[in-house]
Amino acid sequence: MVVWENFNGRADTVFCGVFDGHGPHGHIVARKVRDTLPSKDKSTLSGQKEEHHEFLCTMKDSFRKAFRVTDKELKLHHNIDSICSGSTAVTVIKQGQDLIVGNLGDSRAVLGTRDQKGRLVAHQLTVDLKPDHPREARRIKRCNGRVFAHQDEPDVARLWLPNCNSPGLAMARAFGDFSLKDFGLICVPEVTYRQITEKDEFIVLATDGVWDVLTNQEVVDVVASSDRSFAAHSVVDIANQAWRIKYPTSKTDDCATICLFLEDTAGGLSGSSVTSKGIGSSYREPDQLRKPMLRSKRVTPEDADGASDSDSGDEGSLESFTRLNTLLALPKFGDTSPTIK
Fold it and tell me: Residue ranges of the PPM-type phosphatase domain (predicted)?
């Protein structure tokens, strides 16, 4: 994750981003994106404030160009294997009272704001770009990619190559993962705008490891009840505890959180991260199986058919494993050495 104050030489501008790697070399991909993307955004931003409409168009083009150039550089980087590894990104640029959010994948941005009765409520600023989101599923199918859930993970829709059950990516947009870029996976961010009001108090950026075990409102409540300097750390700690309670036999998914407080006061930023081994880097280790089989409700694609795309029915249960964002291969029943990577 990264926080850049006085972004683009402007005292009223801050850039925040959380990057979540997946696959065998996901931690390397996420680190490369973290180090590259902010400077690309900075180089495409204008130092002058245009009219409102022009400003929005400029910012949207800026985000898209920065993401596209970063992905292209990643593909050309000979020392990073990003064929079946990649990274999500959720980024925010706050410039004065203007808030621009760029999202790629299934990390999330949530706003803590006051409703008409003065209650602090959570407002989700991004959409989780999963393969079974209707719009994403339609694009993937047009590109001959396949979207289906493995029978042992019925709640986890994945993106697969046309003719083989691989790699099984649990998101529809990402940096890297170039084996899927011709089959519906894209690196185009979804860019949204919000004008900050006096009711808006803070923004939380976090990886899916947080949202898999905590609701938007739970995270907002944790931040509101914490000291600002430790707010992100509190979210990560509670998410880590929730993983141990809900899934005691599973490794904790990596969690990274940034809290951006919107008032012009000191101590307006807070960030923390945890790996499956404890507090530390915000990037995943390139080893194995990390996530449990979750029971969260998923969206069903509008044009999904009921047919199964599995090649055979002898895949064994995965309940003793944790869930990956990428399934490079599926273990067969009775196999004593699973080949999931």
Answer: 1-262
Write out pLDDT tens, residues 188-227: 999 999 999 999 999 999 999 999 999 999 999 999 999 9
DSSP state of 269: E
Contact 3, 271 (CB under 8 A): yes
* Residue at 293: amino acid letter: M
Please report the pLDDT score of residue 41 as a whole number. Answer: 77
Strands (E), 23-135: 86-95, 98-104, 108-114, 120-124
DSSP tag of 25: T
Number of domains in the chain: 1
Alpha-carbon distance of 38 to 40, in angstroms, equals: 5
Residue 334 lies in a domain: no
Residue 340 domain-assigned (yes or no): no
Full domain range(s) for residue 130: 2-279
The CATH number of the domain holding residue 38 is: 3.60.40.10
| Residue 176 belongs to a domain | yes
Please tell me the least confidently modeled range out of 166-175, 185-194, 280-289, 322-331: 280-289
Question: In whole angstroms, what separates CA 66 from the centre of its chain?
Answer: 17
